[in-house]
Fold:
Amino acid sequence: MKDERIWELIVLKLSGEATPDQEAELEEALKQRPDLALQAGILEGVWNSRQEREQPDTADSFNRHLQRLSNHLSDGTLKYDAEAGPTRRTFSLRAIVPVAVAACLALGIIIVLLVPRKEKAPLATTQNEVWTKKGSRSKLTLPDGTEVWLNASSKVTYGNDFNDDTRKVTLEGEAFFEVTKRNGVPFIIHTHMVDIRVLGTALNVRAYADEKITETALIRGTVEIVLQRNPEKKIILRPDEKLVVRNDTATLTKPEPILTLSQVHYLDKEQRNPPVEALWMKNKLVFDDETLQQIALKLERWYDVKVIIQDKQLEDVQYSGIFENEDISEVLYALQLTGNFHYTIRKKVVTIGL
Amino acid sequence: MPVMSEKTTIADLQQKIALYEDMNAYRQLYELLNEQLFWFVFSFVKSKEAAEEIVSDVFIKLWKIRDELPSIRNLQVFLYVIARNYSLNYIIKEYKYPHVSLDEIQLDVTTSINPEELYISAEMSGKINKAIAELPAQCRLIFRMVREDGLKHKEVADILNLSKTTIRNQLVIAVRKIAQAIRPHLEPVAAKQRYGQ
Structure:
C-alpha cells in the first residue's frame, strides 16, 4: 500500500472518522510497515494527550458576558419592549459600543466591503430648497402636508415632481419629520450616508456632513434605512429606536462599530416631551454625554459662532446638559463649572483652553 | 477530547435553552464552548480583549435567537460560523487587513502536548510542539479544531468554507510533519516498551 493512503487512514482513525473497514485496512497495512506503526502509535499518544492551554478565566468571563448580555437586552435593540408600555429605560451612551456589534449582527447586517455607491440620489430637474443659517431654525410644510422642522445650518431639497408617485427629499444637516401618511406612496429622505424610506411616521434625522455620525431616531411608525455604502442591506427601525451610522471609516484607530442601534433617550417616563434627540425643536440645546468636540460643532451652529479648542486633551471630555433661552456665555459658564477649562468670547469667536 | 457525549450534551442544552429559556443550560453551554471559540476567534483577531468580546457577542446572538434554536441542526458548527463571521467583520472594520482570507491571516493557534502523559522525553515533546507551531497557519488551525475541539472533518469544512478533502489533506500534512519530528528520536527499545507488546 502507498504511504499516502496509510497516512490518510491514520488521520481518519485519529479523527475518529474511520469506518470499521478502514480501521481493519489500516491495521493490516501497518503490519507490513512496523516503522509507520511505531510513528502511528506515538502520534496517537500525541493526538490524545491533554492540553494545557493558557485559559481565559472562565468564571469571571461568564460574569462579564452576563453583564454584556444584560446591557444588551436593556439598552440594545428594542425587540422586546417597543410596545411594552410606559416604562422607558434611560440608557447610557457608554453602553452603546459593546452592544453595537451584536446589535448590527442581530439585524443581519453584515458590512462587507464598503463600496461607495456610484449612483447619486435621483434629483428632479427643478429643485426647491429650504435652508437655515447658523443660529436659526425653521419649519416648513411640504406639498403633501408633511411638516419639517429644520435645525440650524441645514437644508432640505425637493423636486417639483414631489407628490406624484414618490415623495423624495434630500437632507443636509438635521431635521425632524412629521410625515403625512399616504397609502402606497413612500416618503424618502436622502442623506449623504443613508437613505430613509418611511411610511407615516415621525422621526429626527441628523446628517451634518461635518459630524462623525449620521443619526436616525424614530419616534413613531416604521422606517427602512438603506446605507449608501451598502445598498443591499436594509435596516428596519421600530419606534423609539435610533440608528447611528459612522460617517468615516478609513481613519479609525480603534474598533468602533460602523452601525449602532440603540434607544432614543426620553428624560421623562411619561414621554410628554420629545426625546433628547428632538428637543432642539422645542428650542432646547441638548448635550447628551457628548464630547466637547461634538459640543463645539453644536454651539457653532446654534449660536453662529466659531469655536476653537486649543488643547487636544479637552476634546474628548464628555458633558451633558439642557439649555433653554440661554446665551452662549451662560452655556459655556455652565460647562466650565464641571470641565477644567477656560474660555474667552471675542466677537463671534469662542476660544477654549486649559 | 472529541466524544459523542459532548455532541449529545450540546444538543440537550440547545433544547433546554430553546424551550425553557434555561439560564443554567445557557451557562453550561457557554462553559463548554467558550474556550474553544475564544481560541478560534483569537487566532483571527490576535487580541484577547477583542476575542472575549466577540465570543460574548456570539453568545448574545445565541440568546437572542433562542426561539429558532430547534431548527439549527449543528449548534456547535453554527456558533463557529458566527464566530468566524464576527471575526472577519472585526478585522474588516479594523482595516488592518483589508482583504481577508484564511490563507493570509497569521493564525496564532496555541497547541501543545504534555510529555508526562506520553512517556516521551521533554526534548521530543519540544520537537513535537515545534513541529506543530511551524505548521502553516491554516493547517495548524484545522489540526487544532479536529484534535482539540473535537470537530468532524465535515464540520470544519463547513466552518472554514473549505472542502472535506482539503481538511483531510491538511490533516495528513500536519500529521506527517509531526511524525517527521519524532522519527529521529524513536529508539527501538523505548518503542518496544510502549508499543511492542
The first helix of chain B runs from residue 4 to 20. Chain B has ten helices and no strands.
